[in-house]
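Anyone opening a protein record will find just a pair of labelled lines. The record below illustrates this layout.
***
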Amino acid sequence: MKSFERLHRLLNDNAIAVAPDIYSHETIAQINSLVDPIIAAQQGNRRYVSALELQQLGLLETIFSPTLQNILTDLIPEPELYHCHIYEISANQSLPHIKSNNQLHGWHRDTDCKHDFSKQNLQHVSFFVYLTNVENNGGCFEISDKKLTFTPAINNSDTCYQLVGNSGFNFFFDRKSLHRASPNRSETPRRVLKISIQSRHLFNHKKRETIFKLVRENLSEEQLMLKQLFGDCTVTAVAPELAAESIQHINEHTQLPHHRYQASFTLNENITRWYRDARFIMRRLAVKYLKLNDKKVPTPKIPFKEQKG
């Protein structure tokens, strides 16, 4: 029996669920004030605060609150992190910051998900928290309800949701869904906390990266849940007890996004979407039934920078 039934249902049916705010305004302000210097010291249109830096700032236990621990373990038993970082996108952008040149205006599925189509459970989930106010022109996250199937999209039947909200607004989504980061055309940088989980029983190259290794080494023996999340295979953590009132509150107030519109894709774009979906499905089936090697380790997107002195 799942505690967060509505969250499960929305993610399974619609791939997206907006949850009531998990962090207080004070907590969001604390996170922002601590990461401000790290972000300000970086150049470029995309700036990161890694999991190791979050740990050094003393923020990991703040981020992985008892509430979030319970939700993550309810969504995916024995969860393990795939992403854990904060990133900021510059203002006044005309293109999405992810896959802007992919012939679909940035729309994509996360094909690094090691999905098993023989199972119906959730397998790859991301949790986003806006750390700045995000309007519909401010780089808001967008997601389509188009299922991942061999069936091509013949007409523009997608319902797309725009995730618009103030600082502290948070939501969960299925990573294999069709989604994108819309261009941040506003005058304000867009800052997000990003956490992604999958089962510890799936291949996860991220836990082999230097940043996650160093986080594990710095964790105490009492931090069992964090040790498991960061890939310590020697522990099996149990999330702390959560009051029934908290569970009921989350169930009652988890909902679909308010902002939605009908998608508009050309025939060529629909063919491209169908081809990429079919290729993704065929690869996952080949991995399962033909034992295709699926354990490539790509170059880290957030490289470890050794501190001097």
